[in-house]
Write a structure and sequence with these properties.
This protein has about 300 residues and is of the alpha/beta class. Helices cover about 50% and strands about 15% of the residues. It contains 11 helices and 8 strands. It has an 8-stranded mixed beta sheet with strand order 3-2-4-1-5-6-7-8, with helices on both faces. Strand 5, helix 9 and strand 6 form a beta-alpha-beta unit. The protein binds guanosine-5'-diphosphate. Guanosine-5'-diphosphate binds next to helix 5. It is an enzyme of class 3 (hydrolase). One of its GO terms (molecular function) is 7S RNA binding. It is found in: Cytoplasm. Part of the signal recognition particle protein translocation system, which is composed of SRP and FtsY.
């Protein structure tokens, strides 16, 4: 999978020039860092993230006798790899679990980001990996099609949906849905909430009300990787209002640049927990920063 072709190629070129040299001078390093900086900016990585990244790599490369040591080029590649990994959060962060069932997962995000699809993918994953019995709650009452879509997704993976149509207040739907999950001993509840085309106050208030009622163990924000810096801004907006616990980066299969993947953790402080890599229900993967760094470096 060559998701971030441009970035990979430019980073490889920058490092290849170093490799050709027997000895790496400070000015060689400066030139390489300039190229890495431009490669990251062209990939739509957040400006501050790029600045911090380049500073970190340069400091490490200048220190500890890297330039005077054996294989300086190889050591610099290793530093870049490690710093990319660090920028994306170092370690995979697992889903939060409730001490006592059900674990409540609230899905939030803008319309079209992939919230409903991801809710289904997650339910299937929990079913397959943990033999879990999730219940999904349809709390998007603004678009009748949204409930139909969730019902369809859920039918395809054989997971029950709690719904009360579009005439009941979403907070009340969630309250009754949670009561049903309690009665049926579901071990997970996945709440599909409304999205809008943009962040607006009314939506945020509604989501905050659902959060206050449900006390979710996990608030998963889905953002579309293909929207680059807009995905990062969206993540900041949702996080400011809801204090999300994790991010799902969707449509990574169509993301040719990589800016969102590289920026979101550093900008919001919140971990990317999963990545969506296709429309199929099985195409949800745990996000591993080290593997993503390797993929970026090619
Ligand atoms: P919602 O409005 O946030 O609930 O978004 P949907 O779940 O309806 O998804 C919007 C569109 O994006 C649908 O056509 C999905 O099939 C598609 N989609 C969701 N996740 C992915 C993904 O990881 N990769 C690709 N290629 N498409 C996705």
């Amino acid at each position: 999978l060559m998701a971030f072709e441009g970035l990979t190629e430019r980073l490889q070129n920058a490092m290849r020039k170093l490799r050709g040299k027997g000895k790496v001078s400070e000015s060689d390093l400066r030139e390489t860092m300039r190229e890495i900086r431009l490669a990251l900016l062209a990939a739509d990585v957040n400006f501050t993230v790029v600045k911090d990244f380049v500073k970190q790599v340069r400091e490490r490369a200048m220190g500890a006798d890297v330039l005077e040591g054996l294989n300086p080029a190889q050591q610099i590649v290793k530093i870049v790899d490690e710093e990319l990994t660090k920028t994306m959060g170092d370690e995979a962060v697992p889903l939060n679990k409730a001490p006592k069932i059900p674990t409540i997962i609230m899905m939030v995000g803008l319309q079209g980001a992939g919230k409903t699809t991801t809710a289904g993918k997650l339910a299937l994953r929990l079913k397959n990996e943990e033999k879990a019995r999730p219940l999904m709650i349809a709390a998007d009452v603004y678009r009748p099609a949204a409930i139909d879509q969730l019902v369809q997704v859920a039918a395809g993976i054989d997971v029950p949906v709690f719904q009360l149509g579009t005439d009941v207040d979403p907070v009340e739907i969630v309250r009754q849905g949670l009561a049903q999950a309690e009665a049926n001993h579901n071990d997970y509840v996945i709440i599909d909430t409304a999205g809008r085309l943009q962040i607006d106050e009314q939506l945020m208030d509604e989501l905050a009300n659902i959060k206050a009622l449900a006390h979710p163990n996990e608030i998963l924000l889905t953002v579309d990787a293909m929207t680059g810096q807009n995905a990062v801004a969206t993540a900041e907006g949702f996080n400011d209002k809801l204090d999300v616990t994790g991010v799902v980066l969707t449509k990574l299969d169509g993301d040719t640049r990589g800016g969102a993947a590289l920026s979101i953790r550093a900008v919001t402080g919140k971990p990317i927990k999963f990545i969506g890599q296709g429309e199929k229900m099985t195409q949800l993967d745990v996000f591993h920063p080290d593997r993503m760094a390797s993929r970026i470096l090619g």
